[in-house]
Design brief:
Blueprint: E1 8-10, H1 18-23, E2 28-31, H2 47-58, E3 62-66, H3 71-81, E4 85-86, H4 94-104, E5 111-115, H5 118-128, E6 131-135, H6 144-162, H7 168-172
Parallel strand pairs: 1-6, 2-3, 2-5, 3-4, 5-6
Bound molecules: magnesium ion.
């Protein structure tokens, strides 16, 4: 169960305290794409997120996309954001995370994974000792398999709140303002 507990929970990537991450010795960010940086059904990176990526780079973080999404789509966004990408990642498998760390030249202890899913992004990162940050999915649209997993995810997060491993406030946004 601990392997599913995110180190931090935020609503959006833009809410993440980058200076705090730096103070933890984190200098590499592994980024999920779908519903983390762009809506699952969108072909456009919002200006808000474009600006965030620029800010992240300006602060000296090395970045890499790690996505289970359609390879063509992932490669296009990676080019647009000027960063490497691990495609066909099959998170939570270990290999895509290790490959991403290799691409940015960081150790697991120097990296954070940012994503919207507990069973892929957070679990994969935690297994390797990568700092895990769970954010609220940008949109409701996603694969039907993901939708099924969301119920389980929600149950898990509620359990973390009950056990005081996460604050109710942290997961509230994700549950549409309800606990
Ligand atoms: Mg995602």
């Amino acid at each position: 169960m601990k392997l599913l507990l995110p180190n931090q929970v935020y609503n959006r990537v833009t809410d993440i305290d980058l200076d705090h991450l730096s103070s933890l010795g984190i200098s590499g960010l592994l980024l999920d794409l779908d519903n983390t940086l762009v809506k699952f059904d969108s072909d456009q990176l919002d200006n808000e997120f474009k600006a965030w990526i620029e800010q992240v780079k300006a602060k000296g973080f090395k970045v890499c996309l790690v996505s289970n999404g359609k390879p063509k789509r992932v490669i296009r966004f990676a080019k647009q954001m000027d960063m490497p990408a691990v495609i066909r990642a099959f998170k939570p498998k270990r290999s895509p995370f290790l490959r991403a760390l290799e691409l940015i030249g960081k150790k697991a202890s120097e990296a954070a994974m940012i994503g919207d899913q507990l069973f892929t992004d957070v679990l994969g990162a935690n297994r390797l000792g990568i700092h895990s940050i769970l954010i609220t999915p940008l949109g409701k649209k996603e694969l039907s398999t993901t939708r099924m997993v969301r119920k389980l995810e929600r149950r898990m997060l509620n359990r973390f709140v009950k056990k005081r491993m996460l604050t109710a406030e942290a997961v509230k946004q994700r549950h549409g303002g309800k606990q």
